Amino acid sequence: xxxxxxxxxxxxxxxxxxxxxxxxxxxxxxxxxxxxxxxxxxxxxxxxxxxxxxxxxxxxxxxxxxxxxxxxxxxxxxxxxxxxxxxxxxxxxxxxxxxxxxxxxxxxxxxxxxxxxxxxxxxxxxxxxxxxxxxxxxxxxxxxxxxxxxxxxxxxxxxxxxxxxxxxxxxxxxxxxxxxxxxxxxxxxxxxxxxxxxxxxxxxxxxxxxxxxxxxxxxxxxxxxxxxxxxxxxxxxxxxxxxxxxxxxxxx
Length: 252
Ligand SMILES: [Zn+2]
Hints:
This protein is α+β, with helices and mostly antiparallel strands. The protein is built from ten helices and six strands. Strands 3-4-5-6 form a four-stranded mixed sheet, sandwiched between helices. It has a two-stranded antiparallel sheet with strand order 1-2. α6 (142-171) packs across α10. The longest helix is centred in the middle third of the chain and has 30 residues, at 142-171. The chain binds zinc ion (ZN).
């Protein structure tokens, strides 16, 4: 059965409606008091309305709009404002309303725009506040963003490498730093017995493309009898000691 079609036979529903028409209706002659009207209206406003948050689909809206247009052309539907002119009083009221809802006063105000200096080159650029709230809008261009990215990443990587290095030093474990393994990779730390420690910056190594690179690198190293330990920035920042424990097989 198509949507919106009642299962009740037409005759029955007609009889039902007939039984409640006019004087037979239990509310015949009764009117809501002003207060009741107010209450009814209030009880269905905004969030309380059963239709609150419901939206017609774009397709349905288009359909409505097209039907209205067709009916206007066929002169079956009269535009509600046809032939009406607004009085000066109403015009002023509308103007005032419009001013009241402008900019910040509008319920859907997103915060306007802010001028911001690029973090890298210092050039001024305007961004919508919504972009800034998302954590974007710090750079004037993609180029400046990449420059910042490289600088920032290096700084982070060195800080976690330093944490690992300090822990190795503390335990008196001999190591070599930034060792190129022939044709495979540049590894962060090489320890005796072909043990490798890689300190991975979260940002760089969480990227899908780079993850794949890491895995294929590890596999190649494995076939050359290296033992690779990979630690993320989070792990190292939490406890470099625990990371090295894992490598040395202590407590795990
Ligand atoms: Zn810039």
